[in-house]
Write a structure and sequence with these properties.
InterPro entries: Ubiquitin_hydrolase_53/54. One of its GO terms (molecular function) is hydrolase activity. The protein is mainly β. It has 1 helix and 5 strands. The chain has one domain.
Length: 85
């Protein structure tokens, strides 16, 4: 994505990719709200959360979309990084 089309002051035509997302949704165990992070690591998406079950491999982007829908995960913060093609 070329972020310079969205935000002033960024270098034109510089490419950015999504690397992590923070959001909240109902906890599977007790329906309480919980915050979690989805991060792209070693060519796959991984969910991180507090507690004993800290990490879960989600997989590819299609799996992320499915995961967010099934778990009613609401995104709050998106993190991007610049990269060269």
């Amino acid at each position: 994505i070329d972020m310079s089309r969205l935000y002033e002051g960024l270098e034109p035509n510089k490419q950015y990719r999504l690397v992590s997302m923070v959001g909240c949704g109902p906890c599977v165990e007790d329906e309480e709200e919980e915050y979690m992070c989805l991060a792209y690591k070693k060519n796959r998406w991984v969910r991180f959360r507090r507690g004993a079950s800290g990490k879960e491999v989600v997989g590819n982007w299609t799996n992320v979309v499915k995961f967010c829908g099934e778990r009613k995960f609401r995104l709050k913060i998106l993190f991007y990084e610049a990269f060269s093609k």
